[in-house]
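Subject: mismatched residue count in predicted assembly?

I count 499 residues in my input, but I want to confirm that the predicted structure covers every chain. Input:
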Amino acid sequence: MIPVCRLDDLPAGESARVDTMPPIAVFNADGELYAIDDTCTHQDASLSEGWLEGCLVECPLHAASFDLRTGLPTCLPARRAVRTHRVTVDDGVIHVHVAAEEDTAA
Amino acid sequence: MRTVIVVGASLSGLYAARELRAQGFDGRLVVVGDEPHRPYDRPPLSKDFLTGRSGEDRLALGDTEELAELDAEWLLGTRARGLDTRDRTVLLDDGRTISGDGVVIATGASARRLPGPALAGVHTLRTLDDARALRAELTAGARRVVVIGGGFIGAETASSCAGLGHDVTVVEAAPLPLVPQLGPEMAALCAALHRRGGVDLVTGTGVAALRGRGAVTGVELSDGRLLPAEVVIVGIGAVPNTGWLAGSPLALDDGVLCDDGCATALPQVVAVGDVARVGGTRAEHWTSATEQPRIAVRNLLAGYTAETLRPLPYFWSDQYGARIQFAGRRLDTDTVRIAEGTVTDGAPGEGGLLALYEREGRTTAVLSVDRPRPFMRARRELGRGAGAMEAVS
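Triage response: the counts match. Full output below for your records.
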């Protein structure tokens, strides 16, 4: 379980990058919190810097799009899913529970 | 339509094949490729692939399952040498012919070479085989490398070579590289990245000759200087692969001439990617190669130009640890304003920068160095603006 930041510091529409190995991106999508692996599965780009629209995040390099709920790509050029991670808020602090490798969506 | 032939098995050729199936074409689909490889992505060749950070498995476009679903006949390692447009027959260099109802031309472009005899140690970087050969040479120990050409391929390759510990010099004939793409102010900032990466940039002089007998030993510059080198990389642009279309009635002029819908003057022949000059412009951009096939296939299947596109030009480059992104259509008369970030010692400062190109109070283009998020916002706004302008014009 990794603390990310205070909930107050991540308003709706914002994202935070956690420097785990590999890094994780945490999103506040209209009040719902999601965490996925930060690196686009197509090519090296940080999804925390992507464009958030509803539950989809668009990669800032080549416009691949991922569903934050499942980690699955919704369009090319990405073809492989990113891992999703569970997020909780304890005492006003956002925590990420890093998923094991085998939890990766197919 | 019963048979469609896609000539070219790279990025735009594969996207065309995908679009044909996605848009309901269920006939015979033949893809002809002159390289022996399945479609692969080129951008990593000058970067992660060259430095060994990633392998060939990361280059593949489309996995076995998807390629099987496409249900195409792949004629790889086979070069097209002619197109008979009367019956839309593609002639192959092994003597075979394939006739189809529709043809997608996606033959790309080839690296421009220097005249003169071939010397060992002299490379271009365009194909997987090029990259394999160069990678093998670069792992054989520290070398003196001269990169001829300071464009994106040259700069990325120089950056990768420097990262591998080689002694690197870039030679650019113009007073400053990347001016046509970025304009002088921003080109100067990006040129300064070479210094950051420990690479010498020599500008304003061309190459007179390569020295060496059998293997290259140096590069003689037009101003008389001699740069010793064991490895020379020639990055002086690419030439569209239209030679095989000579003698066909297709209009050729630095590419296959197409309308705004990727359609040629001949019914049932469309062109996409680096080889296509769409609406007067030929763009050697990854994004164009992935965007054009949807429109081209739509028009091919319709039999006329039912839809056109004029996407906002977009390209990116990774060099010396910096990510450069550019979108829009700038003119030399535009003014440039740094909207975010700072300049340190003539180069983008730590934290990068965002620059806006402006004309009569509106933004025409945007350049970002390591500022992907505001770049994305600006690019989207530009795209909306461009769409609105075309709607009223």
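Chain B touches chain A at residues 18, 41, 43-44, 48, 61-63, 66, 286-287, 290, 316, 318, 323, 325, 372-373, 375-377, 380 (CB under 8 Å). Marking this ticket as 'not a bug'.
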